[in-house]
């Protein structure tokens, strides 16, 4: 379970180990052969108090790490020393206890159907209707069950019913009955009984949706499947959309507002939010120390950074605080609005209120969401107004039918600021409307899209000043979740031929908008990643550059480079940039961006980093100037670029060096730095292995939007390599990883890391790109 892997204290074995460097005072817990029972540094007193280290030391905490008892203190100096109490509980002041309490609340909410009922605003099938009193909602069913599973289960239990519906991926199902006797039997046979993997079934009444209670006519002409209203979107479901626009399901369910769903920290002051995020990051980073300590092979002394971590409260390195966002309100340059029915049954463009898994499908307008820009809100309102009269249905998440699915508004800032308030001017906007064309006639779609284009055009000019509208894209996506792949077909594209012209279908004009970072202009295509908070991203990139210690003799790898933002903004500080990115449109944007800005020392490679990085590093690093070669170098200290074109290489294939001049240029590099900025899941193991084993790579800047994956990757990068014996012992030990945490998995992988010098975490800092949400970016410097 997340957060509880680190200590594994209850089943761990304490042993005294003399470290390989002959330091006999270094005592630590060791992993056992079974791999799950792992340990940490512990000083064992004699005799040991029965409550040894089961409570946090208040002196230690209050004094910022000073306790006169030192290692002999019976209280725990920090979370990593803390042990469970004899009754298997944790010190209530500890993070573990708080996390456990939180999880208990969440589990209870899940069992209770979210504590407030299920918000289903959609019907399962045409003609389906539920009669109040003769319909029940079953909560806590196994997610993988379908309607058939539910029906068989009811039959097995001898429960008669009229109809039963259950959608895979949800924990709720809906049953209607012929009469009250059947209802009574169902309650007796099912409520509180065990189902699936020890889940406790709960029967809830189906409450009429508010719009039915008020006897309003519902435009979708449907009755709800249930009384409980729940609805959250797949993106919210998974905890985050592609850009970290996240709603925690529990807060969404409790808050019952779009504001609470997408900006759960909005009730706090901004300084409090920053403090909260910094503390939460510190807790996560401590996992790096704990896990690297556990994974440290036998017979090898603990790296100095682990030994010194006690001096900084268990952190792997100094956490230099958190940098706030220059813009706190309306900062998002990209907003993804779902289309669905509100709690009132109205066609709505906004945010899902909770978690689809738990049956939430209600969408509410983005009212009071402090991260959403005014322009995005206005376009959402224009689209919502249009939908009220559209003859095409909105997307039904229960049976995956409908046409209108999602609106994304992307904005681009001009190079100039508003003279009155110094705010950036939003000069371009791209609207991406996602639809599902299955089952709809082409001509009818065309007509409907023309109406929509007209509605947006008029909507944009009705505002004073006019809203920017650069391009309208209709994306056709037939998948279940709204998260469309980068290559989802663009069915129609309306662009402007020139400044001030009307939107129209101009096949020769590419759909794109432009933004500006650090004085450079960036061209952005519809599916390319671009940080959602431009002014905070500017801070992030320049900080990464400062930490990277760049110079004209630096070769910089920008791994997961998107549209090239990091590499291009740092290009003037290095000899050459090699960017790697898998999204072909983003690579093409990066290439264009280099051209637009007259930058000639960047190359962009299209491919998955795991497929291309090994060959690329070999190709470039074997030509590095080594200190021994310095005397034979012709390098005169200033970089002269050959004027080579920036090169895009497709599908992971790599070409040999383009020219002799490039080869000569490379020979002048004296150091290599990599900046990695991976997606939420972190780096692929192959990429980690290449970074780790390329001994010429001495400095690595890790930028992460997910501290858990940063920690997991850093465990592999920073743990000393195992000896041969340990590696071979580990070979047959690869079992039962399905339910393990990312950190445990990383520990396991670290054991098979080829012999190589580990990196050392030097410093870290948080940069808040997502005010009002729990998310923020982390930058960590690793060196060796
Ligand atoms: C967090 S974004 C960072 C983009 C860029 N550094 C920026 O700041 O704009 C992650 C990028 O990694 C790309 N990506 C995801 N998986 C990848 C992989 N396996 N190999 C290469 N790029 C990948 C995504 O397409 C996305 O552009």
UniProtKB/TrEMBL annotation:
S-adenosyl-L-methionine binds at residues 531, 581, 677. CDD domains: AdoMet_MTases. Keywords: Metal-binding, Methyltransferase, RNA-binding, S-adenosyl-L-methionine, Transferase, Zinc, Zinc-finger. Residues 51-80 form the C3H1-type domain. GO terms for biological process: methylation; RNA processing. It holds the Pfam family RRM_1. Residues 140-208 form the RRM domain. One of its GO terms (molecular function) is RNA binding. The keyword S-adenosyl-L-methionine applies. Residues 24-33 have a biased composition (Basic and acidic residues). The keyword Zinc-finger applies. Belongs to the class I-like SAM-binding methyltransferase superfamily. RNA M5U methyltransferase family. This is C3H1-type domain-containing protein. It comes from Genlisea aurea. The lineage of its organism: Eukaryota, Viridiplantae, Streptophyta, Embryophyta, Tracheophyta.
């Amino acid at each position: 379970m997340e957060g509880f892997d680190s200590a594994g204290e209850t089943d761990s074995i304490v042993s005294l180990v003399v470290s390989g460097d002959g330091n006999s005072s270094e005592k630590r817990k060791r992993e056992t052969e079974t791999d799950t029972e792992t340990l940490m540094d512990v000083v064992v007193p004699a005799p040991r108090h029965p409550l040894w280290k089961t409570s946090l030391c208040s002196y230690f905490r209050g004094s910022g790490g000073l306790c006169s008892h030192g290692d002999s203190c019976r209280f725990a100096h920090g979370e990593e020393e803390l042990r469970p109490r004899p009754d298997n509980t944790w010190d209530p002041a500890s993070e573990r206890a708080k996390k456990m309490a939180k999880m208990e609340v969440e589990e209870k909410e899940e069992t209770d159907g979210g504590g407030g009922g299920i918000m289903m605003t959609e019907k399962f099938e045409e003609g389906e209707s539920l009669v109040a009193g003769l319909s029940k909602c079953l909560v806590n069913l196994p997610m993988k069950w379908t309607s058939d599973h539910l029906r068989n289960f009811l039959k097995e239990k001898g429960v008669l019913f009229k109809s039963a519906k259950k959608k895979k991926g949800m924990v709720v199902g809906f049953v209607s009955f012929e009469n009250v006797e059947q209802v009574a039997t169902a309650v007796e046979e099912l409520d509180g009984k065990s189902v699936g993997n020890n889940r406790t079934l709960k029967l809830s009444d189906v409450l009429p949706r508010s719009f039915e209670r008020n006897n309003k006519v519902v435009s979708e002409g449907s009755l709800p499947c249930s009384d409980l209203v729940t609805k959250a979107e797949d993106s919210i479901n998974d905890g985050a959309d592609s850009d970290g626009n996240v709603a925690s399901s529990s807060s969404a369910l409790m808050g019952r507002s779009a504001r609470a769903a997408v900006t759960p920290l909005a009730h706090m002051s901004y300084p409090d939010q920053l403090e909260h995020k910094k503390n939460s990051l510190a807790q996560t980073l401590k996992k790096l120390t704990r896990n690297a300590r556990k994974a440290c092979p036998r017979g090898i002394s603990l790296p100095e950074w682990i030994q010194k971590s006690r001096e900084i409260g268990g952190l792997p390195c100094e956490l230099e605080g958190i940098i706030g966002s220059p813009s706190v309100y309306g900062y998002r340059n990209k907003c993804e609005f779902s289309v669905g029915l509100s709690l009132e049954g109205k066609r709505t463009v906004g945010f899902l209120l909770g978690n689809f898994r738990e049956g939430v499908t209600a969408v509410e307008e983005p009212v009071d969401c402090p991260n959403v820009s005014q322009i995005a809100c206005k376009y959402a309102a224009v689209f919502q107004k249009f939908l009220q009269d559209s003859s095409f249905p909105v997307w039904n998440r229960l049976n995956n039918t409908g046409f209108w699915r999602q609106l994304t508004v992307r904005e681009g800032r001009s190079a100039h600021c508003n003279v009155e308030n110094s705010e950036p001017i939003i000069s371009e906007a791209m609207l991406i409307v996602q639809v599902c064309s299955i089952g709809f006639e082409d001509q009818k779609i065309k007509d409907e899209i023309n109406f929509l284009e007209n509605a947006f055009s008029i909507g944009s000019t009705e505002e004073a000043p006019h809203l920017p509208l650069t391009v309208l894209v209709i994306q056709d996506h037939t998948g279940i979740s709204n998260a469309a792949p980068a290559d989802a077909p663009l069915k129609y594209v309306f662009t402007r031929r020139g400044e001030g012209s009307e939107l129209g279908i101009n096949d020769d004009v590419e759909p794109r908008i432009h933004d500006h970072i650090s004085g450079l202009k960036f061209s952005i295509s519809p599916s390319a990643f671009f940080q959602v908070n431009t002014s905070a991203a500017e801070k992030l990139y320049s900080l990464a550059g400062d930490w990277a210690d760049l110079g004209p003799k630096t070769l910089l790898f920008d791994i997961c480079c998107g549209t090239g933002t990091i590499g291009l903004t740092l290009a003037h500080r290095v000899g050459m940039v090699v960017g790697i990115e898998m999204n072909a449109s983003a690579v093409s944007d990066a290439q264009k961006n280099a051209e637009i800005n007259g930058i000639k020392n960047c190359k962009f490679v299209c491919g998955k980093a795991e497929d291309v990085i090994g060959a690329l590093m070999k190709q470039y690093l074997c030509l590095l100037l080594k200190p021994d070669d310095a005397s034979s170098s012709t390098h005169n200290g200033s970089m002269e670029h050959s004027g080579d074109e920036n090169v895009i290489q497709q599908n992971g294939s790599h070409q040999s060096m383009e020219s002799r001049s490039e080869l000569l240029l490379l020979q002048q590099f004296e150091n290599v730095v990599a900046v990695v900025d991976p997606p939420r899941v972190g780096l692929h193991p192959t990429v980690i292995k290449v970074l780790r084993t390329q001994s010429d790579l001495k400095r690595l800047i890790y930028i992460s939007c997910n501290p858990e994956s940063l920690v997991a990757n850093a465990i592999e990068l920073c743990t000393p390599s195992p000896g041969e014996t340990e590696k071979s012992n580990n070979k047959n030990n690869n079992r039962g990883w399905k339910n393990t945490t990312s950190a445990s998995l990383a520990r396991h992988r670290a054991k098979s890391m080829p012999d190589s010098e580990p990196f050392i975490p030097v410093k870290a800092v948080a940069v808040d790109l997502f005010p009002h949400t729990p998310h923020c970016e982390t930058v960590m410097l690793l060196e060796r």
